[in-house]
Amino acid sequence: MSEHHDPASPHVLTPTGLNRLVRDLLEDALGTVWIEGELSNVARPASGHVYFTLKDAGAQVRCAMFRTAASRLRFKAVDGLHVLIRAKVGLYEARGEFQLVAEHMELAGEGALQREFEQLKARLGAEGLFDTARKRELPPFPRRIGVITSATGAAVRDVLSVLGRRLPIAEVDVLPVPVQGREAPPAIAAMLRRASASGHYDVLLLTRGGGSLEDLWAFNDEAVARAIHASAVPVVSAVGHEVDFTIADFVADLRAATPSAAAELLVPDGADLERRLERLRQRMATLMSRRLQAQAQRADHLRARLQAQRPQARLARDAQRLDALRQRLLRAVSQANALRAARLDRLHGRLLAQHPRQKLLPWQRRITELQMRLRSAMERRIERDRARLTQQARTLHAVSPLATLERGYAIVLDSHERVVRQADNVAPGDALKVMLAQGQMTVVRKD
């Protein structure tokens, strides 16, 4: 007899439902994971998503990185790259395939070191190793300095050069240690402990030149950090270049950007010290001079007080006071006389201003001015009349008979002194007077 299954049973699933259930179980159980492997079958469709397989020697898993996360990649994902990804474990429901949805991808190796660095930094920070309140001030004038570094590196040469130039009197010991490799962290930590316990140094400098994260990893060691924290004297850290930061930098009492910068911070400039000492010497000399002057003035004051107790001194004071009063009286009389003289001058000036002569002066000036104006007007009038008369004389002369006579003409007058204009007006035998330009004559008409 065959078994019949009830369709209404809640345990019956569809493929979609099953895949969805598996997806939810995977996401709830695993969530976000970090996984390291090699890229293969990398595909970049037009959508901007990246699909790839992450594999190792024994297995592989399909992965997807959607466009938003893929746009944040700092390198091009290609087959063969060894990477570290942060992803959510899930299931692609449509095909029932197990897959990872990558949210972040970085190159393996350096990324792992960076995570380890961040984890150690967070743990030591939580313990208080980085607290600024525990950091100590550097001694202003260190006499003995211990430099923990490689004896053959460029960093030690830079440090010694700067220290020798700035403060040659400082005693500097190079405490050689390896600064790279597995043997470096325990050697650095041991040297820090020995130098601190010796009581010989005022300050310690832990330094090396630049390099990659792996090159500087000895200074990210927990034992080194705790040795710095436990040091009895201040520790300055100058590891790598200005952009490099290590755990030792955070724990140290002071972090310098470079080894040379650390040397600059460790000691004052000798030339500046000489100038400062000279200024202090001058200031001390000035203060001593002022103090001696003050003491001398006090002695003079006491001597004057002692002399003031004698009768001669009192008489001298009274005589001086009498002289002062006499001078005040003379000044008061002189000032009163000066005020009276000034008032008299003002009154005399006012009296002169009211004198009739002062009032006549403006009228006299006015009359003189009018006379000058009248004379000028008369001269101009006479000149105009003379010019007009001359012009009229010229005009009259132009129409005068005399002018006609000058041109060779003559005027004939009859016996009655009338001008003869027609020959018919003169009878034969009449006497006629002929006037010429120069003289006159009498003529008789014959016919």
Task: Outline the structure in words.
The structure is a single chain. This protein has helices spanning 15-30, 67-70, 110-127, 154-166, 184-198, 222-230, 247-251, 259-266, 270-308, 311-354, 356-399, 401-406; strands spanning 32-43, 50-55, 60-65, 82-92, 97-107, 144-149, 171-176, 203-208, 235-239, 254-255, 411-413, 431-435, 440-444. By secondary structure, the chain is an alpha/beta fold. The chain has four domains: 15-108, OB fold (Dihydrolipoamide Acetyltransferase, E2P) (Beta Barrel); 114-133 and 142-268, Rossmann fold, CATH 3.40.50.261; 310-346; 405-444, no CATH class. It has a five-stranded mixed β-barrel. The protein has a five-stranded parallel β-sheet with strand order 7-6-8-9-10, sandwiched between helices. A three-stranded antiparallel β-sheet has the order 11-12-13, with no helix packed on it. Helix 6 links the parallel strand 8 and strand 9 (235-239). The longest helix has 44 residues, at 311-354. It is elongated, with a radius of gyration of 65 Å. The termini are far apart.
